[in-house]
Amino acid sequence: MTEDKPKRRKIMATGQMKQIMADYFYDLVDAEKTGKPIAWCTSVGPAEILRSMGFRVHFPENHGAMLGATRMSTDMIPHANAVGYSPDICSYLTSDVGAYLQGVTPLSMAYEGIDHVPKPDILVYNTNQCRDVQDWFAFYAREFGVPSIGVHTHRGVGDVGDSHVRSVARQMEDLIEPLEKAADTSFDGDSLKRTVGLSRECSDLWKKVLDTASAVPSPLTFFDGTIHMGPAVVLRGTQDAVDYYTTLLAELEERVKDGVGAVEGERFRLFWEGMPIWGRLRDHSMMFSNLRTNVVASTYCNSWIFSQFDGADPFNSMARAYTELFIVRSDKAKERYIRQMMDFFKVDGVIYHDAKTCPNNSNNRYGMSERLEEETGIPSLTINGDLNDLRCLSDEQTNTNIEAFIEGLEER
Ligand code: SF4
With a 6 A CB cut-off, is 91 part of the ligand 1 pocket? Predict the structure, then answer.
């Protein structure tokens, strides 16, 4: 007799999220038609400045993730390779550039009437996550003949000090003049304060949403988190995002109160370190659920928590928040953070995803997993794959390794 497969519980707020994401994309398209200014921004770039100046903001990494989730990316990457972008660099970049060269977008599958990504008036990056974003935006700057400007952040930072903050804050202030030119508007300090205040509210709610996963059983999975983080990425700084996370948080708190887990019969709890594998989200979610294992938390989803934002001191607080991010930090600071997360989320094990094309967010390559395992006694597993390039992934090997890892946890 076969055992019934455990149920994965659906989040009821998903409908509201889909609606605000649709409104966001239609608003971008409308901006292009009506001549409102459009900026493209990196996912942890200074979106608040852009939004406060009236720009509609598009995030190419969000588009890259959609290309991955729809599994269009693997076919698009070779088109970017053909114009000189290596298969070894960021596969968000190569998927996105490949899709642009082919004139296709996953937006057309999701939203009727949208057949291309609205064109930018300016591109704004922050190298806090990697250098690839600068090269990515340089491609579009040449294509569209628009400026690409940005912030160059220190990398491998231990403790973030005043000198780091001063340097990044001054660079953010220097963005204002070219942005005023691109939007044909004047910077309004009060508008920025309001936008940073709203971003902080969004961030606080998103953190509370993710923190509900510390409950046993957890009401949320990492796979839910990768979907529901959409508004925190593309709509932070708006009331829509604040309203959405208020609803989502209430639903999850209700689950915690009622002792309802996202994975029925949760036996083991894992932490995911590194990028998601977008084209396998559903498969992985089902596999872990069938093993009655919940991947409860991740450094990835936590990357859109900006607790330092302060509407009263927008430039310095943005500089600090965008530099204190996990991806910017030294291994020592990262290890301290992961230890705290392991403890807070009460995990039995850690999965490190070594993403072939993203060394910036693959933290297993310099002995971190071994050091943490030795210090905490909590076992870990490294899986080799990629965020978007499914040619870098062996499903069979990944599934076998994960199943063996869970068996190991059972034996413990
Ligand atoms: S951090 Fe990684 S996935 Fe993100 S843009 Fe940079 S290389 Fe690409």
Answer: no
127 touches ligand 1 (CB under 6 Å): no
**How far is the centre of ligand 1, averaged over its atoms, from the C-alpha of 361 (Å)?**
7
Reported as a single tens digit per residue, the pLDDT across 339-388 is 999 999 999 999 999 999 999 999 999 999 999 999 999 999 999 999 99
91 Cα: distance to centroid of ligand 1 (angstroms) = 8
Across the beta sheet with 56-58, what order do the strands follow? 56-58, 38-41, 122-126, 148-151
Do the first three CATH levels of 14-191 and 192-411 match, i.e. the same topology?
Answer: yes
Per-domain boundaries in the chain: 14-191, 192-411
pLDDT per residue over 240-289, tens digit each? 999 999 999 999 999 999 999 999 999 999 999 999 999 999 999 999 99
Say yes or no: CB of residue 233 within 6 Å of ligand 1. no
* Atom number, ligand 1, closest to the C-alpha of residue 61: 5
Reported as a single tens digit per residue, the pLDDT across 109-163 is 999 999 999 999 999 999 999 999 999 999 999 999 999 999 999 999 999 999 9
Q: What is residue 105's three-state secondary structure?
A: coil
Ligand 1 contacts CB of residue 100 (under 6 A)? no
Report the percent of the chain where pLDDT is more than 90.
98
Say if ligand 1 is within 6 A of residue 361 CB.
Answer: yes
Contact 143, 58 (CB under 8 A): no
Alpha carbons within 13 angstroms on the beta-carbon side of residue 28 total: 25
Q: How far is the CA of 133 from the centre of ligand 1 (A)?
A: 7
Residue 59 CA: distances (Å) to CA of 117, 206, 304, 330: 10, 19, 14, 26
Distance 132 CA to ligand 1 centre (A): 7
The verdict on domain 192-411 having CATH code 3.40.50.11900 is yes
pLDDT tens sequence across 214-243: 999 999 999 999 999 999 999 999 999 999
Query: Do the bridges between strand 56-58 and strand 38-41 make them parallel or antiparallel, or are there none, so unpaired?
Result: parallel
Q: Which residue has the tokens 């690839």?
A: 132
Q: Is the C-beta atom of 134 inside 6 A of ligand 1? A: no
CATH of domain 14-191: 3.40.50.11890
Cβ 237 vs Cβ 51: under 8 Å: yes
Alpha carbon of 277 to those of 39, 66, 294: distances in Å?
27, 12, 16
